[in-house]
């Protein structure tokens, strides 16, 4: 069932201004406090508090037996988490940077994704793999990848991505409570953007997308770091009297496309935005599904503003590689030109 478009709750006594990084830390802390079976593990997550300080202070407060510094061995981290999950724990693994996930790829797709099915439902795999992903931080290669489409293709895995502090706080806790393995992609270049968070306000379900800005001219859908880019593009378009409807997909597997279908049936146009390359991607799947479901409503082809089908470039070139406000608005203009 699709989630309705929700307004942010008005400020209350419990509301605080937090960054995505702080919200993730708060979400981990809440899960550790609520369930003694929750463990946090990864490279430098303990004493250092993670390279982005997402796990800052957790080892000090919960002990080394619950917040574990691991060797530099992603395959070992995921393999150990699988064993812990079999024994009833809920491990949360941090992959330090997106490009470092590939040494653990076999454990994720061959074991973690398959054990529930292989055991005919006897074994649950409540494992969360946190992945800071995407570019925009001026990093060297293997630190700015967008591998989410690879994992969205794998049966047995759930794949989600937060775009703001409120979702970061709630979605991480919901992912930890899920009995299926969840790949949790965090937009690292948005870690320090702020928003109001009221921990007492009820969250929307984990596997729902939602409208974050209403409009009637063109539907624009994105996830993770590109949601902010699309909202900025919508604000710029509004100055020219053009109202874009922006949808935060939030969940990539399973995809919740009902809000997208509903929007496209009204606007007749869709622009998809992601940092990941276009070919064989999440945006490819969405474009196909929208064509199938909304063919007679479309006034233009589904268009995309994405990263290019190349390896991620050196930091001096990433500004030209990543979709920005101008590339989103260019796609909007091309859609309206049909």
Automatic annotation (TrEMBL):
Residue ranges occupied by any Transketolase-like pyrimidine-binding domain in the UniProt entry: 18-193
One MF annotation (Gene Ontology) recorded for this entry: magnesium ion binding
CDD domains for the chain: TPP_PYR_E1-PDHc-beta_like
Top-rank taxon, per record: Bacteria
InterPro entries: THDP-binding, Transketo_C/PFOR_II, Transketolase-like_Pyr-bd, Transketolase_C
Pfam families noted in UniProt: Transket_pyr, Transketolase_C
Cofactor(s) needed for function: thiamine diphosphate
Keywords: Oxidoreductase, Pyruvate, Thiamine pyrophosphate
Name by which UniProt lists this protein: Pyruvate dehydrogenase E1 component beta subunit
């Amino acid at each position: 069932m699709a989630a309705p478009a929700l307004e942010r709750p008005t400020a209350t006594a419990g509301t605080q201004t937090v960054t995505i990084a702080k919200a993730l830390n708060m979400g981990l802390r809440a899960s550790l406090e609520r369930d003694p079976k929750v463990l946090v593990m990864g490279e430098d997550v303990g004493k250092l508090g993670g390279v982005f300080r997402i796990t800052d202070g957790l080892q000090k407060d919960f002990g080394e037996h619950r917040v574990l510094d691991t060797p530099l061995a992603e395959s070992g981290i995921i393999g150990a988490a699988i064993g812990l999950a079999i024994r009833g724990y809920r491990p949360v693994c941090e992959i330090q940077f997106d490009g470092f996930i590939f040494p653990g790829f076999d454990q994720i797709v061959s074991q973690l994704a398959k054990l529930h099915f292989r055991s005919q439902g006897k074994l649950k795999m409540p494992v969360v793999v946190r992945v800071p992903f995407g570019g925009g931080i001026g990093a060297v290669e293997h630190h700015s990848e967008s591998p989410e489409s690879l994992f969205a293709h794998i049966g047995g895995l759930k794949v989600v991505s937060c775009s703001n502090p409120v979702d970061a706080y709630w979605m991480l806790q919901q992912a930890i409570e899920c009995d299926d393995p969840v790949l949790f992609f965090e937009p690292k270049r948005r870690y320090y953007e702020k928003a109001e968070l009221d921990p007492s306000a009820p969250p929307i379900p984990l596997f729902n997308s939602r409208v974050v800005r209403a409009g009637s001219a063109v539907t624009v859908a994105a996830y993770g770091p590109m949601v902010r880019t699309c909202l900025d593009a919508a604000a710029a378009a509004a100055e020219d009297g053009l109202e874009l409807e922006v949808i935060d997909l939030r969940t990539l597997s399973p995809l919740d496309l009902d809000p997208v279908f509903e929007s496209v049936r009204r606007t007749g146009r869709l622009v998809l935005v992601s940092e990941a390359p276009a070919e064989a991607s999440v945006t490819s799947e969405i474009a196909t599904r929208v064509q199938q479901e909304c063919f007679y409503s479309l006034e233009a082809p589904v268009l995309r503003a994405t990263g290019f089908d190349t390896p991620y470039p050196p930091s001096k070139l990433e500004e030209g590689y990543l979709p920005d406000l101008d590339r989103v608005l260019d796609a909007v203009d091309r859609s309206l030109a049909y």
